[in-house]
Amino acid sequence: LPVKTLLAIESSCDETAVSIVRGEDGAPTEILASEISSQIELHRVHGGVVPELASRNHSLRLRPLVEQALDHAKLKVADIDAFAATTGPGLASSLLIGSTAAKALACATGKPFLAINHLEGHLLSPFVAETRVPPHLALIVSGGHTLLLEVKGPGQYRKLGGTRDDAAGEAYDKVGKMLGLPYPGGPEIEKIAHEGDPSTFDFPRSMLHDPHHDFSFSGLKTAVLYTLQGLGEPLEVIQDRRTVANLSASFQQAVIEILVGKTIKAARRHGLKLIALSGGVSLNRTLREAFEAACRKHGFRLAVAPPAMCTDNAAMIAFAALLRHLGGESSPLDADIDPNLRL
Ligand code: KG4
Ligand code: ZN
Question: How far apart are CA 137 and CA 155, in angstroms?
Fold first, then answer.
């Protein structure tokens, strides 16, 4: 049978997610279920992800989530042709929960198991509704990664550049914390930045004009910190909403200029006509609009993941796994997780 149904589990960080997809070669993938149980509230009181809490909650929520996904897809476990899970990069104890569950399902049903790279999930997420993955320049901007890659097709990736220190989302989250905003800082900074003037503070655009394709965001983060200290306020209790808005808008403007500038330059240099954006930070509307404008101006096409597929989810993992499964691939049941897995 050419049409395949696949169930995937994502548990690399603080979202437990299960998705069921169906598809065949050369046809857009149908998402039959995409369930997410977010732990953000649980970690918020700690100001960041606590690994021990994350893995315990993955193990509590995974089984009901698998049943919920099967329910939504109106399927039984026996209808699934293959099982997949994220096996890295991410938190070791969290990766183990999802991958062990997917292996157990594969083992019990005698169906294949596929170990999937979380970054490949993000990378391919803008193309779920397409019939194929065309050659393009990919920018992945998430909480853990900032990566520029040349993509020739599924499985053919060449890294052009990455961050030398903080990831873009990590910088958002750290600056959010400095400004006294709730975790995660990314969406909070975007919200309050709408009230601010991005030209208030002139923050550095590190490496923007360097010839390589790497990024650095720690200098920008430190510049925000020094500016805050210069304002003479105790950091935790800054109550001045206008100042926070201006700092947020100015910080965000710097991040966006760096991301857009370096991506356009890389696409030009490598002769790629299509740019694809993915990862949690690509949810940011101001960033999307800046990319849309720059692509229009310079003659590039832009593909962005649908909003529900920007932050961590299992549909993107299921899609990456389905492409591999349709290509005849599978992974051994004793495949290990790798917290530092690369693309
Ligand atoms: O892809 P993701 O869910 O997880 C990782 O694989 O890291 O990305 C999460 C990151 C966080 O750093 C979060 O602050 C950031 O994406 N993020 C945003 C926005 N929404 C989420 N950053 C900027 N603007 C947003 N609207
Ligand atoms: Zn992610």
Answer: 14
The pLDDT of 67-79, averaged and rounded, is: 98
Q: Which two tokens stand for residue 40?
A: 């953000």
SS3 assignment for 88-114 = ECCCHHHHHHHHHHHHHHHHHHCCCEE
Q: Which of 37, 311, 317 to mutate to test the pocket of ligand 1 (most atoms within 8 A of CB)?
A: 311
Ligand 1, atom 13, residue with closest C-alpha? 186
ipTM given for this complex: 0.98
- In this structure, whether the domain defined by 136-305 belongs to CATH 3.40.50.2300 is answered with no
Q: What count of Cα atoms within 13 Å lies in the side-chain half-sphere of residue 56?
A: 7
The helix or strand, by DSSP H or E, that contains position 54, with its residue range, turns out to be helix 51-73
Ligand 1, residues at Cβ distance < 6 Å:
13, 142-144, 169, 172-173, 184-187, 190, 279-281, 283-284, 311-312
The radius of gyration computed from the CA coordinates of the chain, to the nearest angstrom, equals 20
How does DSSP classify residue 163?
B
Closest CA to 157 of 323, 330, 328: 323
pTM for the structure as a whole? 0.94
**Cα gap 75→232, rounded to integer Å:** 60
CATH architecture of 4-129+310-326: 2-Layer Sandwich (3.30)
pLDDT value, residue 45? 82
Q: Are 55 and 96 in contact (CB under 8 A)?
A: yes
The domain segmentation of the chain, as residue ranges, is 4-129+310-326, 136-305
DSSP 8-state secondary structure symbol assigned to residue 337: P
Tokens of 14: 């603080």
Average pLDDT of 33-51?
A: 86
